[in-house]
Amino acid sequence: MVATRSTLPPPEPLAAEHSARLHVAIAAAIRSAGGWIPFDRYMELALYAPGLGYYAAGARKFGDSAAGGDFVTAPEISPLFAAGLATQAEQAFARVPARIVEFGAGSGVLARDLLAALAARGVMVERYSIVELSPDLVARQRALLQGRDVEWLSTPPDGFEGVMLANEVLDVMPVRLFVKRGGAARERGVGLQDDRLLFVERDADVELSEAVAGIERDVGPLPEGYGSEVGLAAAAWMRSSAGWLARGLLLAIDYGFPRREYYHPQRLMGTLMCHYRHHAHADPLWLPGLNDITAHVDFTAMADAAHGAGLDVLGYTTQAHFLMNCGLLDQLRAGHSLRRANEVQRLLSEAEMGELFKVLAVGRGLADPLVGFARGDRIGRL
């Protein structure tokens, strides 16, 4: 359910002060740019500005509301999520070294549970690397993973062989916003009015105009007033992954759609959404630094980017199908409890994460069909 600002809980005084400092920094960036910045620049500052952005400061992000978190990810729900990934990783390790790189490891729970699940299968991981941009999250991960053989990297490795994981990474990469006006694309950016942040439209530049034209070639003309977002940064990240991955598998897990569903005419203003203390709302300009800002993933664009850079597109399915293919229900039966059953319901249910979250597999040098996509592969919909 999407909340309105009037129904959201007010921030604590220290949090409000933190947001005010980031507001000042964003306003300064807008003024220095001539009074307007594109939304992807605003999103970058709101999430990643050093010491102030949502992922760069010390506020707790992951976990339930009682613990002060803003949202819960699949690894936080149940260790059975990691156990499913372990099944797929074990299959890949028959072809590539038993090494893992995880991007944006959050609280570190996935790394902890995945290492445990693989060890229970007799699979010893040669190296587990985490690529993390947030100093705050690195500190949390180090505390949780103390004593385990994990290394932290500031940049992705080159020529990696093994399994790469990106769980809820693409959705927080900055996006550009557009709206159709008079048959052309306009860009929605952020400006100031009496020091208040507000959306301001400008003519789209060549890059954004070409991106929107490409979308319309695939889905047909978008109606007047239709607005959405384009994940150019996420597509660039997927292209870069071809340079990082010499041989092996990359699993990207996130909420999103194929392009024809993403840019459906009835989805009039895109998928941009904010998360604040377990409330979802649609105002990314409210309390910058205290809200997670996300956009759904255009998985067609991600597959095209990976394929265009030389990777094979190996599978695309829902989280529910992927986890069931990887034996989640068997694991539930082996250790059944009411708590575990409730966790599985959240991971698999269409009303929870099972349908909205998708798994995209790309890679190089893996000839065998992947177990996680044995049934329910939707690669033909991309």
Can you describe this structure?
- With 382 residues, the protein is α/β, with parallel strands linked by helices.
- The model is unreliable at 62-67 (pLDDT under 50).
- The protein has 13 helices and 16 strands.
- Strands 2, 3, 4, 5, 10, 14, 15 and 16 form an eight-stranded mixed beta sheet that branches. Strands 1, 6, 7, 8 and 9 form a five-stranded antiparallel beta sheet that branches.
- It has helices at 13-32, 39-48, 74-77, 79-92, 109-120, 135-144, 206-219, 232-244, 259-262, 299-308, 319-325, 328-334, 338-348, and strands at residues 36-38, 99-103, 127-131, 150-153, 160-167, 176-181, 184-193, 196-203, 227-230, 245-257, 273-276, 279-281, 292-294, 297-298, 312-318, 357-364.
- The protein is globular, with a radius of gyration of 21 Å.
- The protein has one domain (5-381): Rossmann fold, CATH 3.40.50.
